[in-house]
# Entry
Amino acid sequence: MNQKHHRHNSPASHVLTPPESSPKYIKSRRSKKFLWLRKPLRLTYLKLWRLRGRPKFVAKGLAVGVFAGCFPFLGMQSILGIFLATMFKGSRVAAVAATWISNPLTYVPIFVFNYKIGKLLLRTEDTVSLPLDLKSFAAFKEQGATFAIALLMGSFVVGMILAVITYFYGLAILERWRNNRRIKKRKLK
# Structure
């Protein structure tokens, strides 16, 4: 009898090698698919958790990141966030993380909302229908500049409002968190 086969028949075999139909085995196989993504996400999470800047510094980074995330520059939002964080002397890491306000799940609702706000502010007519067919695509091409201006105007206004809200709420949360850490350190002494 093969020793490997013998191990499978032993009472502790489920500890050494899980059967392929067990939930733990299936879960471990699924998690290996995204193993390459796990490390960068964990590093970003730890960087955010360990941000050691003053609360104002981090709150500025969060605010400019949210502002940059409201714009439809897919793929360029992080670069815009880093640029704005450098310009306003905020945390670049917090800015990049805050640009994730727009992600593949939230792109459409955010940009539709921004477009409607821009259209309202510019008082333009809605000539673009959202389910695109050949007729609406031609109308979209004709109204391309108007659409783009309305979207950018709405993105700017919504971004400014969300950035101000993010700054003040972020500042309050970060200061409270910092004070709680100080209190815990004093208790440990």
